[in-house]
């Protein structure tokens, strides 16, 4: 994602890169690249930086939040696999700077969230199953996006990777994670009724989708006061979603 953001910002003139931050020991340390110099994290941010975009690791996010608070700049983060300490750090940082965290910055996925809430309301009594697929190098399962979709579904009874010898419980939602190949991400929500199956699917073919969404979010967040925002707070139904 870092490379995709770098490519998009530089090739499409959607912003100006001032600093590229990589993990300690990275082969890119000390190198110059289109859009700036690679620096080691954690470390102070360039004084001219107006906002930071983070797709790193939970620990990398903690370091960035500290530096962003010192610099007084907004943070957009798509890092997943967060634990309670990382979520609390987001909340605390949002007391002094604008922060937006999302598991998926696809603006199409924002519409899917609205869709699943509507479908659940209309299709009362239907069984629900969620299937997500990502590339083989992805570490966390289910994906952060799948977990956020479960939140939109207000799912309480979950069955991960269904197996065994029993019938499904009333109201439970099955969650299935597939890993392999180079799939950037796909999510399908099945609403299964008597004699019918309604499937709401979001398929991503390129990480550029997420990069564009993150850049659009930065541009919106720059105009906001300190606080913790969701994408739904920043993009209303009449917002121009794409750059």
Structural write-up:
The protein has helices spanning 2-12, 58-71, 84-93, 107-122, 144-152, 208-221, 231-234; strands spanning 20-22, 32-33, 36-40, 52-54, 75-77, 98-101, 127-134, 158-160, 173-179, 185-193, 196-204, 227-229. By secondary structure, the chain is α/β, with parallel strands linked by helices. The chain has 2 domains: 2-101 and 207-234, Rossmann fold, CATH 3.40.50; 107-204, Dihydrodipicolinate Reductase, domain 2, CATH 3.30.360. The strands form 3 sheets. It has a 5-stranded mixed sheet with strand order 8-9-7-10-11, with helices on one face. Strands 4-5-6-12 form a 4-stranded parallel sheet, with helices on both faces. It has a 3-stranded mixed sheet with strand order 1-3-2, with no helix packed on it. A hairpin with a 2-residue loop joins strand 2 (32-33) and strand 3. It is elongated and about 60 Å long. The two termini are 18 Å apart.
Query: How would you write the strand order of the largest sheet?
Result: 8-9-7-10-11
Tally the helices. Answer: 7
Structural class: alpha/beta
CATH homology superfamily name of the largest domain: NAD(P)-binding Rossmann-like Domain
Would you list the SSEs in sequence order as H and E?
A: HEEEEHEHEHEHEEEEHEH
């Amino acid at each position: 994602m870092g490379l995709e953001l770098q490519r998009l910002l530089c090739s499409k003139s959607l912003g100006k890169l001032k600093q590229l931050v990589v993990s300690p020991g990275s082969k890119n340390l000390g190198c110059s690249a289109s859009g700036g110099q690679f620096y080691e994290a954690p470390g102070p941010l360039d004084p001219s930086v107006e906002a930071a975009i983070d797709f790193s690791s939970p620990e990398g996010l903690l370091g960035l939040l500290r530096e962003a608070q010192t610099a007084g700049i907004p943070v957009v983060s798509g890092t997943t696999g967060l634990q309670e300490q990382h979520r609390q750090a987001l909340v605390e940082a949002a007391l002094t700077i604008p922060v937006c965290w999302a598991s998926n910055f696809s603006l199409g996925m924002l519409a899917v969230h609205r869709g699943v809430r509507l479908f659940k309301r209309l299709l009362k009594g239907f069984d629900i199953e969620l299937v997500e697929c990502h590339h083989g190098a992805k570490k966390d399962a289910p994906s952060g996006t799948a977990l956020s979709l479960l939140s939109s579904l207000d799912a309480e009874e979950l069955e991960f990777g269904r197996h065994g010898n029993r019938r499904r419980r009333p109201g439970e939602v099955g969650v299935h994670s597939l890993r392999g190949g180079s799939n950037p991400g796909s999510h399908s929500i099945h609403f299964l009724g008597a004699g019918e199956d309604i499937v709401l699917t979001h398929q991503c073919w390129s990480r550029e989708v997420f990069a564009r969404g993150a850049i659009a979010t930065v541009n919106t967040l720059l105009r906001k006061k300190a606080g913790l925002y969701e994408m739904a707070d920043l993009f209303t139904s009449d917002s121009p979603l794409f750059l």
